[in-house]
Amino acid sequence: MAGGLAERIGVDPIVIRFSFVVLGLAGGAGVFLYGLLWMLSVEPNGHAVPSPGRGVRSTVAVAFIVVGALLILRSLGIWFGDAIVWPAALAATGSAIIWSRTRGTPTAVLRIIAGALMIAGAVALFLGQYTSVNTVRNLIFAIGVTIAAAALLLGPWIWGFGKRLAEEQRDRIRSEERADMAAHLHDSVLQTLALIQRSDSSGEAASLARRQERELRAWLYRRSDPKQRDMLNDALDALALRVEERYRVRVDGVVVGDRPMDERLKALVDACGEAVTNAARHSGADAVSLYIETDASGATAYVRDQGKGFDTAAVPSDRRGIADSIRGRVERFGGTASITSGPEGTEVQLFVPRNGNSG
Amino acid sequence: MTIRVFVVDDHSIFLSGLRSELGRSFEIVGEATDVDEAIEAIRAAKPDVALVDVHMPGGGGAAIVAAVTKDRPEVKFLALSVSDAAEDVIAVIRAGARGYVTKTISPADLADAIRRINEGDAVFSPRLAGFVLDAFGGEATTIADPELDQLTPREREVLRLIARGYSYREVAKQLQLSVKTIETHVSAVLRKLQLTSRYELARWATERRIV
């Protein structure tokens, strides 16, 4: 309502609002007037926008009208008394000056000082009517002491708050810089590494490029929370890196349903490591696929290569040993392992239940 | 008839590598190194298949796919990426790309993917298959459209095999279905991926990265 009226007259809405407050203080007329105008007013339709230049003059005009109204109310007898209304009006003016909108302008500090002086004056005026000048002086001293005490009490908190704010800003800048660097590395180095892997798909350079890529990616996309770093996905990455480094065979790992590592998952990943190593050493394939899926019942893993395969019924003793070590790791946690192999490759399937018997 | 291919990548070395490699089996009808240039040139060249880099300044592959698909729906897009954030890859798929492969894919596999895309099939890498399983895993909290927001058991089976490193042919053999049927399933999954409103999709994409 005040906003609409302000727009009509051409002053800041706060001037109008505060006029009503002052009139309200002066015996309640303002409240009545506000209600009346609220009922009569309509929503502004938008084309009666005042030009900003009129502000000061209109404000002075409204101020005179308010003072005039106050005088009329006083002579009519709708009045709380001089001792209350004038200091209140002064204090309200000071407050309005402090809180008026144009924050951030050069005059802002000046305005705050002027407003504070007016409020202080209002307090002195109000108290001065009841007490002697000496008491007022004591009072000002008391107020000063109170402010100093408050500064002592709140000072450290405000200082700490400011410091925290600065720290947060510094962290934000740092993470922005990091993101910039990641984007840059992503657009340059990773692309080159991918290119090397394409142009020389089984040589030493490709293997090196793949390893570099994995390490760089791990660093670029490292989770900021160290607690979250110990996930199944991370264990799989580490496994892939190890095998790729040693046997120069690509390991394509996929995780569905990433979870924090526990001893069961660790046993599963270790068993996968055996199976992947096995495939890398014996199958002759240049890539091994590793897939792990977790759900409510447990975790299932598949290790697959498209290499030459072998007869599972007639395995050489050294390979049986590996098969047993794969099986042994998961069976300890009530899991199962099965191996299928043929001319189109080998696949090891592993399962570890989430809450099986262990021991 | 040779398939007409357009290549978009902001890395000139990679672009020239792709060109020389694909030039043997496809007709390269044009190339571009930035988003605006690509949109104009693809509109003009009308290729059968356009290869777009997922991560590019000025909106990336998704912006190109979205802009071109509006008035040239017949152009099919294959997204190429080095190791991008899942949100970028998902953005490009949802903009209308028919597939996503990593840049480390072998030349033979890439050629195969382009042929597949040209025939109207969808191309999923094992990673993307794993991602879809993850994003569509569990029960949707609010299922706006059960048709779109969930995978059928068969689709799940197909995706699982792709994630395990099976080719379409091997998936077909394993499930005793025809390759055509597998392609139909994968296309259906692609459609769901593009149209679903599953909340998990967005959340998954921002939390993780497809590599």
Give an overview in words:
The complex is a heterodimer of chains A (359) and B (211). Chain A is an alpha+beta fold. Chain A has 2 domains: 2-158, no CATH class; 246-353, Heat Shock Protein 90 (2-Layer Sandwich). Chain A has 11 helices and 5 strands. A 5-stranded mixed β-sheet of chain A has the order 1-2-3-5-4, with helices on one face. In chain A, strand 1, helix 10 (263-282) and strand 2 (287-294) form a beta-alpha-beta unit. In chain A, helix 2 packs across helix 3 (29-40). The longest helix of chain A is centred in the middle third of the chain and has 67 residues, at 133-199. The two termini of chain A are 77 Å apart. Mean pLDDT of chain A is 75; it is low at 39-54. By secondary structure, chain B is of the alpha/beta class. Chain B has 2 domains: 1-120, 3-Layer(aba) Sandwich (Rossmann fold); 124-211, Winged helix-like DNA-binding domain superfamily/Winged helix DNA-binding domain (Arc Repressor Mutant, subunit A), CATH 1.10.10. The longest helix of chain B is centred in the last third of the chain and has 17 residues, at 179-195. The termini of chain B are far apart. The model of chain B has no long low-confidence stretch (mean pLDDT 84). Classes of the chains: A alpha+beta (359), B alpha/beta (211).
